[in-house]
Amino acid sequence: MPFELSVALRYIRSGRLQTLLIFSGVAVGIVVFTFMAALINGLAVSLTNNVIGNLAHVRLEPLPQEPRTLTTSDGVRALVAVQRGNEARTSITGWRNVAQMIDRLPGVTASAASVSGSGFIQRGEQILPVSLTGYEPGKESAMIDLASGIVRGSASLGPGDVLIGITMAEDLGVTTGQRLRFQSDRGRERALLIKGIFDVRSASVNERLAFTDLGTAQSLFDVVGSVSRIEVKLQDIFSAPAVAEQLRGMTGLDAVDWIAENARLQDALSAQGRTGDLVKFFAILLIIIAVASQLLLSALRRKAEIGIMRSMGVTRASVTWIFLCQGLFIGLFGSLLGAALGYGFSNFLAIVTLRPDGTQGLPIDPALGEYGLAISIATVASTLAAILPARVASSTDPVEVIAA
Q1: Which of 193, 304, 305, 345 is deepest in the core (most CB within 10 A)?
Q2: Measured distance CA(194)–CA(210) in Å, rounded
Q3: Percentage above 90 pLDDT, the chain
């Protein structure tokens, strides 16, 4: 074993109480670091899932109509404005070929063509505004997981069937097997059979959204043979802007990603991330101060011993390496201990805050504790913190020490 390494280990073993305290300080700093990482990252995942769990990651729609330029007989150009809301409803024709092309793209986990529109559902004297969406057969749960949220009936839709939320069902006083009359904003009416009632833990979805088959929606909203939009789910949700840009170029359709529509969520996540980084910075600063102060005290206390070693031919470089090795060992083993404790603490909190329905009371994810990053930063920071004590120790004059 190299001389510097053996002396560094001896110094660490000799002061057991001091070594225990410094290792504890490093471990506590890493526990704070990993806990904050697990909490902030878990909260970010939770918020993102809550916001986009019932949304498509990318949505393809027809390009909006633009006013056309008219030319009169005398060459004077006149612009005609289109008042939004009064223009003809646009739709996507040839959508099956587009959907097949989307499904072949890497990173796409699901796609679903749909027709959506608004209208009113009537049951006796009760009339409720509703947004009705029709999906392709077998894709009713491709965007919103209706199948797992079914509380009564089935999520499988046939012609003339409809799925409604539990809040809407309670407001109307209906259950599965009964019929509702739906009138679309295009004046079309049809009696729909309630095939299932869902609860997807979203008040807006449970209260105002209903789902039917594609053919029924096409006839109600006058888009027979075409669709209103094609929705896409991605494996990596944060790749949505790039995929949207790619699909826009491939299809010529308007592609909207969930990030562009949820700028406030991104701002909130960024603010949370900065808060977590600040806490983690102070945790690392605590480690640096603790290691530097402990090794500086060790250098001053062992001044006589260092002077004797210097008089016996030990170079200043060797003395410097002795203290750098101490910083390295303290940072490495202290951070390993802290990472293990941090993971255990995060797991403990995740278990004790678990609600009876299986949901997390505290949005903490032990797997997102950034343990490797914490160990690396702590080891490097602890080694760097040993530079000042190393310089103090290596500058010891053996003549002054022996004379004293």
Answers
A1: 345
A2: 10
A3: 20
Q: Compute the Cα dihedral for 180, 184, 190, 193 and give only its sign.
A: negative
Provide the domain count of the chain: 2
pTM exceeds 0.90, yes or no: no
pLDDT tens, residue by residue, 42-89: 888 877 777 676 778 899 988 766 655 555 556 566 655 555 555 556
Over residues 161-187, the pLDDT tens digits come to: 999 999 999 988 899 999 989 999 888
The residue out of 166, 198, 224 marking a domain boundary is 224
Domain extent, residue 125, equals 114-224
Residue where a domain terminates, one of 224, 253, 273: 224
Q: How confident is the model at residue 323 (pLDDT cuts 50, 70, 90)?
A: confident
Question: Is residue 15 within 8 Å of 298, Cβ to Cβ?
Answer: yes
Which residue type sits at 265?
Answer: L
Domain match, 208 and 276 both: no
Which range has the worst mean pLDDT, 8-22, 31-45, 274-288, 324-338?
A: 8-22
In one letter, which amino acid is 179? Answer: R
CA 3 vs CA 15, 336, 338: distances in Å = 19, 25, 29
SS (H, E, C) 193-243: EEEEEECCCCHHHHHHEEEEEHHHHHHHCCCCCCECEEEEEECCHHHHHHH
The helix/strand/coil state of 312 is coil
Distance in angstroms (rounded) separating the CA atoms of residues 399 and 302: 15
- Convert the pLDDT of each residue in 189-246 to its tens digit: 999 999 999 998 878 888 899 999 999 999 999 888 889 899 999 888 888 889 999 9
Q: Where do we find the tokens 């390009």? A: 63
DSSP state of 1: -
Please tell me whether residues 399 and 286 are part of one structural domain: yes
Give the pLDDT of residue 195.
92
Q: Is 347 a member of any domain?
A: yes
Query: CB–CB of 56/232 below 8 Å?
Result: yes
Instruction: Identify the residue with better confidence: 78 or 102.
Output: 102
The tokens describing 317, both together, are 């470089």
Structural contact between residues 292 and 385, judged by C-beta atoms closer than 8 angstroms: yes
Could you tell me if 42 and 149 lie in one domain?
no
DSSP state letters, 342-400: HHHHHHHHHHHTB-TTS-BSS---GGGS-HHHHHHHHHHHHHHHTHHHHHHHHT--HHH
390 and 281 within one domain: yes
